[in-house]
Amino acid sequence: MGKVDVIIIGGGINGAGIAQCAVASGFSVLLLEKGEVGGQTSANSSKLIHGGLRYLETGQFPLVRKSLAERRRLLTLAPTLVKPVPFYIPVYRNSHRNQWTVRAGLSLYALLSEFDPLGRFKSLPAVQWSKIKGLKLQGLRAVFQYWDAQTDDKALTQAVIKSAESLGAKVLQDATCESITHRPDDCEVKYTHLDQEFVVQASSVINAAGPWVNEVLDCVAPPMVKEEVELVQGTHLLLDISPPDGILYLESCFDERVVFVMPWKGKTLLGTTETSIECLVHQPEPTREEQFYLLGIYRHYFPGSGSVEKLEALIVETFCGVRVLPKHSGSAFESPREILQLQRISHPRILSLYGGKLTTFRATSKEVVTWVERLLGKRVLLDNVDKMPLY
């Protein structure tokens, strides 16, 4: 492959989605993934396809509306991979968010879903509260039930890549980008694959390397100005405990964050944390503080589960994802979740993606391909991604 229209660096959910959308739009595509497709951050999320109810607290209404629309489309396009699941929000006497605040938030959530059937919610009568096995009833004032969706994030990413390859995209795993030389008419990209070095010319380069986005920009010549970011680790714990019937949306007893208790592969999954890290030099691992944070919250809401030490012995798996958030002075919880698409006037053929959500990868992909079309012109459409099933 001597020259291509689009080179994508990174085989996570955003890279996969861009590859599918770009090749469907008639562009030749080469994707380079340094490990396994969908094997890093896109395999270590909270497994949710959701609107982001908590984003309403920080006024991110357009993101919530977009996410809810994408949830609806993914439920149609990938019914075996994305499934609706009930969520439960218990509200206690001392909760920071009282039942009227939660009801107002769910009402707005339903409105932003544009009256999707999954937008409905209800307040469960007190006689049904005990059906949530083990949930603390003391001080409980209300329980709300609404709907979102759950997925196998890695399987979804690989399904999107499979779709892209079926249309002609070339995908290389264990391929490392070594250098990108930006020139007036194209970019020269050097990469290694199977211990061999290759050189390819590309009319455009999409940097979708996730937490390693700035490391890729370090390979660009002439040098390119990077965006200042914060890396935030999100830890999850899988416990050998029978799973709940749905997903519990819990307010942390230590701060005002939200933590989920979820069914996953016949067990109970807890997540997530938001811990700032300085750099990413190896596979992230949960800290002891993060483990005790999550286990402490679980024990608070499920007091019959035993001591934190007993719960720790039930951990069968841990995993961490890393988010890329814009650098700011507030907490990670308050940071905007909209993806940043960075382009510099000095390097008009390179587009870098900072952040983003699993749920909105299709919308992001379309925005990126629109940028490619402005740069290279439109091509003959091969297929419509809005009608391509994922399985």
UniProtKB/TrEMBL annotation:
Record keywords: FAD, Flavoprotein, Oxidoreductase
SUPFAM superfamilies: FAD/NAD(P)-binding domain
Key word Glycoprotein present: no
GO annotation, biological process: glycerol-3-phosphate catabolic process
Domain FAD dependent oxidoreductase residues, every copy: 5-359
Coiled coil start-end: none
Annotated Gene3D superfamilies: D-Amino Acid Oxidase, subunit A, domain 2, FAD/NAD(P)-binding domain
Molecular function, one GO term: glycerol-3-phosphate dehydrogenase (quinone) activity
InterPro entries reported in the protein's UniProt record: FAD-dep_OxRdtase, FAD/NAD-bd_sf, G3P_DH_FAD-dep
Keyword Flavoprotein: yes
Superkingdom, natural source: Bacteria
One Pfam family in the UniProt entry: DAO
Cofactor(s) recorded in Swiss-Prot or TrEMBL: FAD
Family: Belongs to the FAD-dependent glycerol-3-phosphate dehydrogenase family.
Protein's name in the database: FAD dependent oxidoreductase
Organism: Shewanella sediminis (strain HAW-EB3)
